[in-house]
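Supplementary Methods, section 5.1.

A reviewer requested that the exact input to the structure prediction be made available. We therefore reproduce it here, unchanged from the version used in the analyses.
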Amino acid sequence: MAAHSSIEAITARIVERSKPHREGYLGRLQGAISRGPHRAVLSCGNLAHGFAACSPPDKADLAGDVVPNLGIITAYNDMLSAHQPYETFPPMIREAAREVGGVAQVAGGVPAMCDGVTQGQPGMELSLFSRDAIAMAAGIGLSHNMFDAAVFLGICDKIVPGLVIAALTFGHLPAVFIPAGPMTSGLPNDEKSRIRQLYAEGKVGRAELLEAESKSYHGPGTCTFYGTANSNQMLMEIMGFHLPGASFVNPGTPLRDALTKEAAKRALAITALGNEFTPAGEMIDERSIVNGVVGLHATGGSTNHTLHLVAMARAAGIHLTWQDISELSDVVPLLARVYPNGLADVNHFHAAGGMGFLIKQLLKTGLLHDDVRTVFGHGLEAYTVEAKLDDNGVVVREPVPEESGDPKVLAKIENPFQPTGGLKMLTGNIGKGVIKISAVKAERHVIEAPAIIFHDQQELQDAFKRGDLNKDFVAVVRFQGPKANGMPELHRLTPPLGVLQDRGYKVALLTDGRMSGASGKVPAAIHVTPEASDGGPIAKIKDGDIIRLDAVQGTIEVLADTAEFAARAPVNIDLTHNDLGMGRELFSVFRRTAGPADQGASVFA
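The structure derived from this sequence is encoded token-by-token as follows.
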């Protein structure tokens, strides 16, 4: 079906805006592609170093420069549940490569930090910047120029966006992303949230809280709520970086291993040495990026991707804006209810039909561009399937059913959960921001209340414990942007604000920090830019100012006299305490050079 008229118009606008950057990018790609398989340009000494540790057959193959070599970029570590399964992937990938006459080498490892471990801790101030560090680390691995294609092993919050930036920077190479899958379902996410709120109120102790958390996060695989990690997997499939049906298969299963081997073989099949050459930088275009945004809205995905998609697109010379994202939200309906915007987890989503059913529904009314290239071939129609194993252990794909396996989790396009997407852009005299509305009840989409100013999370926590917040208010938590302290996630604020909301108070959050994919039932205007450290209007707000957050009209306003508010001097605070400890001193150059949130909060131009 032809693309929806609004989808076509927004895509055309992005194409036009991006032309100077995209044309230069594609020109550089063609220059790299024209030089052919790249081991040919290496000296004998270069090449000898590159295959010194290989087996004799692999050395012979690489010396001849006619056998494809697959570079593996891995984010494996065994502290992160999502990444622990990757320990066994390189041997599987090497075996799969040999089966089709290729070679595979681990080209490099990249860091992978867990936001769940660092929440509320100093290490969280490195989290956003780890994305760009990951891109650089992957770039170092691929810079050896030994590879005809690359596979990327990464799952979680900043890791996949960083790997995508690297893959597109080395866009002359084909790139296949290989997921590891979600952990099996544990304690329901809503029950975990309930225990957190009870703990915040002092009604249960640390032992009960730890027991609940441990039952929720209990084994290998991605956390099962629909946060940034699982939003990443959705994006990789709907943008064509995954093989069809690969995203949400549990680790340690025969199907998961078969999909991993299939992905390695597919990466080798699409190199310049074969007949289906699919360089990542040509494969991903403006249509692919729009498809990613559409998927984000249709699933109520992570607000972090209002940063990451912008940064990822720019790595391919494509200029996506928050306005584009906002206008797409107006025409894309919400089709998934996965925690925190529902009770189900990603395993329930997958069982209900998962990505295949979602893509099929969106294609029905032209909300996705079908005419795109993917690592699987041409067209998204090939992704309207479910992956299974046949009797011989070979991956087969069957068309998804016409009906959802659970209409409470995954809706048909004719009967969406809401007519617009899960994210909304906000503008006004405070600047620009983002709100996730898919988990916020409609009666809380507009909040008007006095401001209470905080300059870190702990100040709000302390005020809550003192009983100072039993009233209507908008918590203004500022100096949390990229230049101030690396833009940490502020999830420690969710339980106390949730408690106050449940007590009947009108509460909201306004911040230049992040809340990410776990943004829940409390209205939160986040990613506010210009940030306080850049002298943005958020730094002019005073205690008692009336703030109006209107997610219906898409506005954030201080209801003050226009001239008086404009004349106010922005507040400055001492931020030197953010400079030292837990590695923060190593990232000072990132804080100095980070761009604004609406441009991806990136250190790259």
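Residues 185-218 form one domain. These observations are discussed further in the main text.
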